[in-house]
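Sample entry (167 residues):
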Amino acid sequence: MVRVKSRYLLCEVNVSDRSRLLLLDDRTVAVAVKAAVARTHGDYGLALSSVGFSVKYLNAHTGIVFLRLPKRCYRLLWSALPFITSVEARGQKIPCFLNCLHVGGTIRTCQKFLIRYNTQQLHRMLPKCKNEEEKQQVRQAILNCSLTRGKNEALEDDLGSEEDEGE
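Predicted structure, serialized as tokens:
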């Protein structure tokens, strides 16, 4: 049996009103992507890309989408992404665009890239914080991203014991 090789596109859905992201679901994103491929590459491109195409993951809060498609046609779909200007969801037309962040051979490589990308975004947010409480929340989010769970708990225990010694 021959294994069908796939590519995974890690995309970010950008909208002007973040609350409208909650209206999205995987079916509406898939329909918008297929429509863009059909407009851009015609029936041949649509048929070629829709055989193994699926939306593997959609986070409606952050707007992150994993698209899975056959390796032989990922460039067709990738080139059609800029032509998505809106998504039809629950009877509402949501103006948006898809920004491709990463192309990977497995979901795991895309997840690793997403962790690095989110950590970079948090580092960019740190200087923009207005007060010390916001800075502390961002620092905690960075620690949660970069440390493993066991090391993070040990670090918190160390910090707690240092505070107790100072009193």
